[in-house]
User: What shape does this take?
Amino acid sequence: SAASFAAYRELVYDNPAFEDFFWAATPIAEIVGLNIGSRPASRTPSRRIEDLRAIPWVFSWSQARFMLPAWYGFAGGVAKAGLTLADLQGLAEDQVFATLVSNMEVALAQSDMTIAAKYAGLQTGQAGRAIFERIRAEHDQACELVVAIRGGSSLLDNHPQMAESVALAAEVVDPLNHLQLELLARRRAGDDDPQLKLAIQLTVAGVASGLRNTG
Assistant: This one.
């Protein structure tokens, strides 16, 4: 737990370029403007991640198909703690840990690093590319670990109905993500047309509905 916490903070708080990456590579700016929830998205009028409330934080990563808060830090924590696969399999005998890994596996299956890479491409510059490569490497390692812990061969191969549900949802959501990417690129380029803003908000609603995930 402590090692995973450290691995997570190294990305989110210790990298000075991460804040700009987050605001560029997710639709957080558009989500902040949505009339959802009973409280503002941020506790203060700032871009600081530590001031952002939990729901818009998770929601924005889900929209961009990273699902980052659900799994980032697991593989890095395992490495920092020096745990072996046998150690993890032993931990998985505990129902709480097994449930944690199972939930993480669903989030990993719902994520899509190919689409996430396109969102990451909205943030130009070497620092942004380095951040994404770090995220993708952690994602690959997390996928390998959760499958290995239960002795499987691919994500959700032990839950075919869930795997089919995730795949069917992706067929609906993927085109919406590509549409959202095009609209976000226009907005990032300076297009302030109110109809463009509305169109982005509609894609946000569509992606959330398809993934059944609002954070």
Observations:
- Residues 182 and 200 are 9 Å apart (CA to CA).
- The mean pLDDT is 92.
- The longest helix spans residues 160-188.
